[in-house]
Amino acid sequence: MEIAKFIFHVLIFPGGLFAIAMALLMSGIDRKIVAKMQLRQGPPLLQPFYDFIKLLGKDVIVPRNALRKAFLLAPIVGLASVLIIPIFIPMYQEAFINSTADIIVIIYLLTISAVMLVVGGSSSSSPLAGIGASREVVTMLAYELPMVMSILAVCKKAGAFMGTNVSFSLLGIQGFQVADGMGLFHITLIPAAIAFLMVIPAEVGVVPFDMTEAETEICEGPLVEYSGLYLALYKLTSQIKAFIMSGLFVALFLGGLPPRTPPSPRRGPPPRRPRPHRPPLHRLRPRQLHPRKPTLLNRPPSASASCAPSATPSSRSSPWAEATPWAVRALRDWPRAPSPSD
Predict the structure, then answer these.
(1) Which of 76, 90, 85, 86 shows the shortest CA–CA distance to 105?
(2) Is 163 left (phi over 0), alpha (psi -120 to 50) or beta?
(3) How far is CA 268 from CA 262, 263, 273, 275, in A?
(4) Interatomic CA distance for residues 287 and 126, integer angstroms
(5) Cα separation of 168 and 252, whole Å?
(6) Which strand (E) or helix (H) includes residue 298?
(7) What share of the chain is helix, strand, coil (3-state, %, to 5)?
(8) CA pair distance 213, 206, nearest whole angstrom
(9) Which residues contact 52 (CB under 8 A, 6 or more apart)?
(10) In the beta sheet, which residues pair with residue 91?
């Protein structure tokens, strides 16, 4: 079962087909953005897929004086080395292969892909390829040391936080960032992040670190004698390295996402609040629907008596004070029709 799971991770997800699809898609997005920055239409988004399929149908030509085995095996070994790397990079606190030294394995695998480019160019017996291979060696010596130093800075910081000397596990580094914040926001790790960002274009071999291929000078250098399937493998290796370096930067410096929590059990709807009982409108009397405010005319006698101003000794004996209740009753009963007794 473990062997089948390992083969699935290497060939399907996160390596293999998934890494190839994401690498080609990222290359298409990059070309589209560059075209928009230069105010031109640019190629379609899926153009790298079309280019890869087109190269698969081309003929493979091997130079007469080339070392045939090294010439044909170099692109295969380089592609295989980069396809294994994604299984060591954790995704959202989950590692496909939990190792205590996966950082060292990733550095070795990245170096193997660069060395295979040198081997392929040197075995083609072409002067232009030899110049490109020598340039690749110089470039590799220039960027490998800053990349290793920036990665070791993160490993040292994570190990000091966890109580060990150095932590070479990417899962442990992500755990450190979850507990103490993203590595990009640590003052001591900002220089390491900047150095790693500068190493990415050199590792991928794009402008301004494209002197290895230098299309205008040495006609793509080590790749000048490659064609068909093996040229497609070299191109795909470079694009997958761009995808891997981006994921590695995220794991080293942007891995401070909180751990995933299981979803809470689904509960039913909240209970409704009981509404106060109200009789239907057709059962209410008109005065209950529109109660009249008490006025001087419809106020009951007790209310009018209680609300009447308090009589003073001087007003009790006045005839107007004695006639006031009678006048109020007369005005209140005015709308009523007179009865026969009246």
Answers:
(1) 85
(2) left
(3) 18, 15, 15, 20
(4) 108
(5) 11
(6) none
(7) 65, 0, 35
(8) 9
(9) 24, 232, 235, 236
(10) 94
Hey, what are 208's tokens? 């301004």
Please give the backbone phi and psi of residue 280, each rounded to the nearest 5 degrees, phi first.
-60, 155
pTM tops 0.85, yes or no: no
Low-confidence ranges of the chain (pLDDT < 70): 256-271, 275-342
CB 78 within 8 A of CB 110: no
Quote the pLDDT of residue 212.
80
Question: Quick one: pLDDT at residue 286?
Answer: 56
DSSP string, 197-264: HHHHHHHHT-TTS-TTT-HHHHTTGGGTT--HHHHHHHHHHHHHHHHHHHHHHHHHHS--PPPPPPPP
- What span, in angstroms and rounded, lies between the C-alpha atoms of 206 and 164? 38
- Residue 196: closest CA among 183, 179, 211: 183
Task: Report angle CA 12, 13, 18 to the nearest 5 degrees.
Answer: 80
The set of residues, in sequence order, having a beta carbon less than 8 Å from that of 66 and lying 6+ positions away, is: 123, 124, 125, 225
What is the rounded (10 degree) CA torsion for 182, 187, 191, 194?
40
Beta carbons within 8 Å of 310's beta carbon, 6+ residues apart: none
pLDDT at 265: 64
Q: Is 221 left (phi over 0), alpha (psi -120 to 50) or beta?
A: left
φ/ψ of 60, rounded to 5, equals -100, 120
Torsion of CA 94, 97, 101, 106, to 10 degrees: -100
* pLDDT score at 303: 46
